Amino acid sequence: MSRSGYTLPVFACAAAVAALHWLRDRQTLTLASVDLIEPAQIAEIPIEQVAGLSENTALAITRSDPGDNLDLTKDTPIWALVEWGGGAGGDEGAGGAGGEGEVITIKGGEGIGRQMNADDKPAIYAYAQRLLKENLQRMLAPGEKITVTIILPEGRSLAVRTSNSAFGVVEGLSLLGTTGISQPLSTPDQLAVFRAELQDKASRFESLVFCIGENGLDLARKLGINPEQLVKTANWLGPMLVEADVLGVKEILLFGYHGKLMKLAGGIFHTHHYLADGRREILSAHCAIAGLKSPDIQAVFNSATAEAALTYLRALDASSSTDWVNQVYSAIAATIDVRSQEYIQSHSERGTGSTVCGSILFDRDRKIIVKSKTAGLLMGKLC
Length: 383
Description:
Layout: E1 5-6, H1 8-25, E2 31-35, E3 42-46, E4 49-52, E5 57-63, E6 77-84, E7 96-97, E8 104-108, E9 114-115, E10 121-122, H2 126-137, E11 146-151, H3 155-159, E12 169-170, E13 181-182, H4 190-202, E14 207-211, H5 214-222, E15 230-232, H6 237-246, E16 251-257, H7 258-261, H8 279-290, H9 294-301, H10 306-320, H11 324-347, E17 356-362, E18 368-371, H12 373-382
Parallel strand pairs: 8-11, 14-15, 14-16, 16-17
Antiparallel strand pairs: 1-13, 2-3, 4-5, 5-6, 6-11, 7-8, 9-10, 9-12, 17-18
Helix pairs in contact: 1-2, 4-6, 6-11, 8-9, 8-11, 9-10
GO molecular function: methyltransferase activity
Protein name: Cobalt-precorrin-5B C(1)-methyltransferase
Pathway: Cofactor biosynthesis; adenosylcobalamin biosynthesis; cob(II)yrinate a,c-diamide from sirohydrochlorin (anaerobic route): step 6/10
């Protein structure tokens, strides 16, 4: 069995806890206790170094350990700089989360990415914010305020090897996640973990939402979908669809980034890019069926990414008052629904084969491009 580890926000929090402990007691921790909140358990995280930089400022360093997950952040150092006093009112624009009046102001330092679609705010998302604030708040006396700056010295170079830019995060990594546990997503036995979660949720709900990754999970929560009905699938969409049918799930909303989810329209039900791609072929085929002219189809086919192809279609609509994005993506979403149900029917020996599927595709700015007709009906039930 592969060993699980912890997500990046946990190590950032552990370093901050160690730095604040030094400010509070002038003691150097070798292990920092972090309440993961999700799940409800305590993690003991090794601290590599702690140093007081002044009477009011301390720095602590730990290293990422995601377990046996094939994660490029493995062993990368995470620094937390903690100083007494809250941030000024303009901190959000300068890479902070919070401002005057906040007990804990969180800033993104070197190596923490910036969100291009959110006024360049640091890419420190909801779980990381909550983790830091709830753990550090417990260590503060009434009236005390601190500013926490998270630094990933290798973040900028590591980010080049990620898909962060596809979601509008530039110049570093994001502190993204909805849980403190890092499961080995790239190993086959992870499917067993996903199936166990699916079995639990299928016993309580007839309608579930499948999200390939953290971006989908985060956006689905913001749209008001019950978190208990969200199921992370990673790239295992095919097996998870069949398992859901076997378990008697009646409705599944497929919720994902268009560059991933559109693969299903081409019959690709394991979406890891090492196994199969086909995105430009799928997009080009639907453009041709919709009636785009040959030069435009060629431009879509030759686009470097699915996002670039979408940008081209949007520019075409803006310049010619057309509706190609809606036409093409509506057709893709409808095809995803049909092919998903066909996949279930052809692979469900023990199931009913009658599970209904709907799909929602979003872009790099986490804005919804299209909902299939079935997805619209399901969203009415889920929100």
